[in-house]
Amino acid sequence: MALVTPLSAEHDLETKKLAEFFNETLGFCPNSVLTMQRRPAISKAFINLNKAVMANEGRVTSALKRMIAWVSSNSTGCRYCQAHAIRAAERYGAEQEQLDNIWEYRTHPAFNEAERAALDFSLAASLVPNGVDADIKKRLYEHWDEGEIVEMLGVISLFGYLNRWNDSMGTDIEEGAVESGNKYLGKHGYEVGKHDGSQY
C-alpha cells in the first residue's frame, strides 16, 4: 500500500476531465494523480503544468521530452517515474533502438549529439548538488535555442516534483507501466521496488 491511498477517478470530476490527457500519454490515469486529488487544487494544477511542459513549441519532440524525463528519474532512482517515462516515450514514437539502448545514450549510435546534449543536461540538472556547468551550457547552445532549453528544464523540473512525490508516497505502479519498465529497462535490473504495493 502507498503512504496515501489513491481515490477513485470519479472523486473530482474536474480532475477526471483534465486527466484524459494521460489516456494519450500513458493509456491510464496515474495513481499519483488519483492521490493528488485529495486536494483537487493540487491535482488540477499539476495536470495543467504537465500539459504545458509537454506541449511542443520548438524542436524538442514528445519522445525526447519523455527520454529527458527518464534520465532525470533514473538519476534520482524513482522506479515509478522511470517506467512511466519510458512507456510515454514509446507511445510518442521514440525509435525502437533508442528505447532499447536508453542506458547507453552517451555512446550508442541511435542518439545524435543534440539528443546527447539534452540528456546530459537532464542528468546534470537532476543531480544533488546540481551539475549544470559551462560545458553543459555550451553543448546545449550548439543544438538548441533558449525556448527549447526552457522546455527541457520544464520537463526536468516537473519530474523532480514527481520523483519526490512518488518515491515518498510509495505510489503503487500500474500494470501497463510495469510492462514497459520490464520490457525496456529489465535487462539492466529494473524492478518496481517500493512501488509494488507493499511499502507501508
TrEMBL record:
- Gene3D superfamilies recorded: AhpD-like (1.20.1290.10)
One matching Pfam family, short form?
CMD
| SUPFAM superfamilies associated with the record | AhpD-like
Which InterPro entries did the record assign? AhpD-like, CMD-like
Domain Carboxymuconolactone decarboxylase-like, chain residue ranges per copy:
40-120
Query: This protein is called what?
Result: Carboxymuconolactone decarboxylase family protein
Q: What is the organism field in this record?
A: Winogradskyella echinorum
